[in-house]
Task: inverse folding
């Protein structure tokens, strides 16, 4: 249990520090006065002042923040947040999520470099199998299924699963040649899916790892927005599919027991989710602040900082309430 808590603290701490470091670095770069860089919320445990900025560690290990001059209040300081250009302020707000996406790409690149990236190059063909009977050979590269471009083995598998026909049209590259093959489909009872009987090759290189990390990041982003879509259509089971702090600790514990690679994968997944969530137009989150800045650009004059600050304060209270509800659901799932 202690090891699980330590692992969870390290994962969440890394995500928070990276996110806030994005805000901090860009704020400093555009000349904004940063009053405090905090990891955690609530009462201070530790604080050190360097230059004009207080660096603090707080008692509640959830979230963190960068406090900038004039962000939520009026300020005449020329280095205040609200006295900078709209582009500069948006850059500061976007930087946190950008760092989360960058962290995910770096982590995924490391994973793929370690274990390799499965490609659509065919390493072997089962004998007998529909692919063998269709004349597909080791060394061929699948580039499309039923006319749909397939850049990854998961895409190939997905198109085969989606097809309800007894045969699929597979486009392959063989040397300089592009060949169309009509391939039968069989059901692998052990795997519980439709297959054509090929084994894909694994490439282990830095370029393949980086390319694979971008593809996987894109896939996760698409899955997150698909989840949002299922929420609006009522198809999502929010109580089962959404995790709060307690649920995340439990997930990190499971991943820790399964090995470092699983912890790294979970870190990348949570980092991408954090990046997306912070860009949503929800009061108190970066996305809401960006919306206010876009409104300022349209109106030609800023929103009253005190009124905007009140909106974010109310939104923060609602977020805390929702977090408590999700935490309650996490506890119920555990017991």
Result:
């Amino acid at each position: 249990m202690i090891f699980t808590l330590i692992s969870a603290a390290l994962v969440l701490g890394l995500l928070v520090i990276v996110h806030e470091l994005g805000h901090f670095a860009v704020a400093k770069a555009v000349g904004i006065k940063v009053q405090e860089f905090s990891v955690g919320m609530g009462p201070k445990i530790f604080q050190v002042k360097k230059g004009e900025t207080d660096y603090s560690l707080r008692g509640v290990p959830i979230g963190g923040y960068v406090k900038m001059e004039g962000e939520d209040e009026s300020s005449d300081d020329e280095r205040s947040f609200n006295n900078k250009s709209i582009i500069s302020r948006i850059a500061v707000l976007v930087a946190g999520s950008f760092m989360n996406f960058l962290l995910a790409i770096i982590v995924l690149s490391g994973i793929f470099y370690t274990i390799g990236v499965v490609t659509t190059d065919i390493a072997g063909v089962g004998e007998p199998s529909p692919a063998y009977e269709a004349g597909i050979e080791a060394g061929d590269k699948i580039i499309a299924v039923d006319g749909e471009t397939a850049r990854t083995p998961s895409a190939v598998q997905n198109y085969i699963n989606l097809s309800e026909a007894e045969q699929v049209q597979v486009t392959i590259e063989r040397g300089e040649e592009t060949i169309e093959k009509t391939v039968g489909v069989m059901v692998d009872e052990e795997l519980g899916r439709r297959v054509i009987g090929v084994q894909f090759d694994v490439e282990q290189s830095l370029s393949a790892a980086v390319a694979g990390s971008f593809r996987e990041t894109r896939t996760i982003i698409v899955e997150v927005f698909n989840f949002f879509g299922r929420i609006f259509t009522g198809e999502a089971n929010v109580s089962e599919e959404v995790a709060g702090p307690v649920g995340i600790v439990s997930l990190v514990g499971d991943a820790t027991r399964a090995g470092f690679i699983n912890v790294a994968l979970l870190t990348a997944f949570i980092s991408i989710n954090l990046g997306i969530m912070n860009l949503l137009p929800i009061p108190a989150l970066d996305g809401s602040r960006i919306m206010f800045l876009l409104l300022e650009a349209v109106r030609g004059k800023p929103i009253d900082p005190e009124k905007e600050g009140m909106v974010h304060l109310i939104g923060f209270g609602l977020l805390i309430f929702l977090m408590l509800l999700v935490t309650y659901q996490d506890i119920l799932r555990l017991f």
About this structure: DSSP finds ten helices and ten strands in the chain. The first strand starts at residue 34 and ends at 50. The chain has two domains: 2-114+221-334, 117-202.
